[in-house]
């Protein structure tokens, strides 16, 4: 063991005293804390991945396709078929998880001397990646129902003139979607203020009651929609995120991407998963039904619930959310305390996992 602490090293000032992103990875029977898909990949898909990876292994002496053209072409087809807006590979860029997509966007459009805004509470990695890329972070407002108030948000954009505006819809951790009119209003405000890039994080869009905002890309070159295979495709372990935007944005992020960032194994695995899109989207339908059941049962038990368009539900209110989190954990169910005062978040799992969760929170209610 070493006695040297991080702060003994000559780390950048803005990293001193900070903690890394850290959702607990605890070994408990029911893990409903990181918005993963509870269904393992179907066996025929596992077989197909094995085949494609075996094939890719034969040329691992060579670097992978640096531009991942085949994968981007298949992602563009998926977006075209499900998003109501035609896109080609030149509109799509892929990286190791949407976290890396966001990092590349901030390296390109943020950075030292520049700022980004997000409307909080929202996905905490937006702020953390901003810090990691030297981009100033501006916490923007939400109202007491966790909705983005268009006027307040427009004022914040006009005042701070950020270089990048993040809009997460459906939002994490609250679960609610942002209406398209609000996104449009913020896009206009961002163009009037700077103009800046508007990044719509649609990590959970496949679970939404509403449609993707992909059609808004038409005629809006400063709009970027980011997506992931970690949730709807049930492939969090794969690490594959992607974006859709004007081809100029795709060209711009290539200025900062590491060469060959997407391994041949990743590309082969993602291509196999895309061949099984229909089956995987079938699981999404089941999860949406389970999400709606969680909302209904939590309300019937007397909890408050934020409207959810995602594969998770924010519920409360608790006088002490962390204590409630611990009591649910003591009953073998791991949920997430995102630090939103009074609220916790549960990911929709299998029906059995959700039953275990509901039993735990019904018992907890009696104690409160
Ligand atoms: N955006 C949002 C809103 C998320 O909640 C997450 C994952 N928790 C991500 C992006 C990142 O996902 P990944 O890097 O696995 O694609």
Name the features.
2 domains, 3-stranded antiparallel β-sheet, single chain, Aspartate Aminotransferase, domain 2, binds 4'-deoxy-4'-aminopyridoxal-5'-phosphate, alpha/beta, Aspartate Aminotransferase, domain 1, 368 residues, 7-stranded mixed β-sheet
Blueprint of the fold:
Blueprint: E1 30-31, H1 43-57, H2 69-83, E2 92-95, H3 97-109, E3 115-119, H4 124-132, E4 136-140, H5 150-160, E5 164-168, H6 180-193, E6 197-201, E7 223-228, E8 241-245, H7 247-253, H8 264-275, H9 277-300, E9 304-305, E10 312-316, H10 321-330, E11 333-334, E12 343-347, H11 351-367
Parallel strand pairs: 1-11, 3-4, 3-5, 5-6, 6-7
Antiparallel strand pairs: 2-8, 7-8, 9-10, 10-12
Helix pairs in contact: 1-8, 2-8, 3-4, 5-6, 9-11
């Amino acid at each position: 063991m070493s006695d040297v602490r991080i702060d003994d090293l000559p780390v950048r000032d803005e990293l001193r005293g900070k903690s890394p992103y850290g959702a607990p990875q605890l070994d408990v029977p029911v893990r409903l804390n990181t918005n993963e898909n509870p269904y393992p990949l179907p066996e025929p898909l596992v077989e197909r991945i094995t085949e494609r990876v075996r094939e890719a292994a034969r040329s691992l002496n060579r670097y992978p396709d640096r531009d991942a053209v085949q994968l981007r072409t298949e992602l563009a087809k998926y977006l075209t078929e499900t998003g109501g807006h035609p896109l080609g590979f030149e509109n799509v860029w892929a990286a190791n998880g949407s976290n890396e997509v966001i990092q590349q966007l901030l390296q390109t459009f943020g950075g030292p001397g520049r700022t980004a805004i997000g409307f909080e509470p929202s996905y905490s990695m937006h702020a953390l990646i901003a810090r990691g890329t030297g981009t100033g972070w501006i916490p923007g407002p939400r109202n007491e129902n966790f909705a983005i108030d268009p006027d307040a948000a427009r004022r914040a954009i006009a005042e701070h003139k950020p270089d990048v505006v993040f809009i997460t819809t459906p939002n994490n951790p609250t679960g609610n979607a942002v209406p398209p009119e609000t996104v449009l209003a913020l896009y206009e405000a961002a163009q009037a203020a700077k103009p800046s890039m508007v990044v719509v994080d649609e990590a959970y869009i496949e679970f939404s009651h509403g449609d993707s905002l992909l059609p808004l890309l038409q005629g809006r070159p400063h709009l970027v929609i980011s997506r992931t295979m970690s949730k709807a495709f049930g492939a969090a372990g794969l690490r594959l995120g992607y974006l859709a935007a004007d081809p100029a944005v795709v060209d711009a992020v290539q200025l900062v991407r590491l060469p060959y960032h997407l391994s041949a194994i990743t590309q082969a695995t993602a291509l196999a998963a895309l061949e099984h899109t229909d089956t995987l989207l079938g699981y999404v339908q089941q999860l949406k039904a389970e999400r709606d059941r969680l909302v209904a049962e939590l309300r019937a038990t007397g909890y408050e619930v934020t409207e959810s368009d995602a594969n998770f539900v924010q519920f409360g209110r608790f006088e002490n959310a962390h204590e409630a989190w611990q009591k649910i954990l003591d009953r073998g169910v791991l949920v997430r305390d995102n630090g939103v005062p009074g609220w916790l978040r549960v990911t929709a799992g299998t029906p059995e996992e959700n039953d275990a969760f509901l039993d735990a929170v019904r018992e907890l209610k009696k104690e409160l």
